[in-house]
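User: Continuing from earlier, I have the next pair ready.

Assistant: Great, send them over.

User: Here they are, in order.

Assistant: Folding the first of the pair now:
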Amino acid sequence: MAEPAAGQSRFSLSGTELKVIAAASMLTDHMGAVLFPQLLFLRVIGRLAFPIYCFLLAEGAVHTHNMKKYLLRLGLFAFASEIPFDLAFRGSFFAPDYQNVFFTLLLGMLMICLAGNPPQKLLGDLTKDSMTAQQIWNIIVLIIFALAAQLLKTDYGAAGVIMIFFMYMFRDNAVMRALGVVLCCLSMGMAEMPAIASLLFIWRYNGRRGWQPQPLQIGFYAYYPVHLLILSAIAGNIPI
């Protein structure tokens, strides 16, 4: 890795390093939820994960070379993770009252795609020339997908989709991005406020993807359902 430029901090994080931090935080959170509910500090540490994943999703939306493949991967793992998710948190193979976080991320990515491609036939030439019209369209899209997350009862719900919106729309504005995280955490309750600390890690992102061969990429996705299955087995939540 190249040496940092003069005046640049040596403490910086690549996309891969952020994923590792988010994965470790998520594991800590789920250990607290499934195995050690009496240890509240595990859940506090776990609050760091979701904002980092939202940030990485927004970065992925900007840099991906194949959005359809990205969406397909999110969709496949959303459905593949549902049974492990239900086993871990409901002790059942099927629990329609709450859906796993991949569905939230999928809705967020669909929102980003639609916000970036306003229908010209519906909005006319205003979308080409008017910043106000584009902003109105973005708000409409945000409302639709936030409501969808809430109605489908996905993990983090509408607040999760709104956080993704802030991460993407204000990816070049750290202040607005931070404001979005704070507002979303407040809307979910004081228990989510430790998530604000994730901004410290996001702030140190160096814009580099980091070492990510394809097996590692798939591994980061598979990590979610696999670790939930392992925790379910340890907790005895898998019906036999």
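And the other member of the pair:
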Amino acid sequence: MQVASKIVKGRAEARCTLSYEDRFLRRKVLSTDAGESFLVDLPQTASLDQGDCFELEDGTRIEVVAAQEALLEITAPNLLPLVWHIGNRHCPAQIEANRVLVQPDHVIRDLMERLGASVREVTAPFTPEGGAYGHGRTHGHSH
């Protein structure tokens, strides 16, 4: 089995579709969309973005593709206060000009609706903003 020990950018010969949660890894056996298995063995845990590529030992590159996922779409005439509340709760959020996408969470949904937002269930790739200070995902305040 081929091993990928680094992440690069550039053209790829294959694709690997992964959910947001699956794009946070260090060591794991994955499969390309065509069904070919490979081992990811990175020096440290990484948060992968759409378009990153695993580079195998033979130089083959496998592009990371964000999978379609069940999400909540939040819309409102003024999204800024809503985005503040989402960020204050450390929820991963994909912030766009006219909407914010978050993972399904009944507490966030209730809060957003109480604040006047429209919330609906959608299916879309989830590519939230990176963590503070360029560290990708963060899990606390030690950054």
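Worth noting for the second one:
The first strand starts at residue 3 and ends at 8. Residues 138-143 have pLDDT under 50 and may be disordered.
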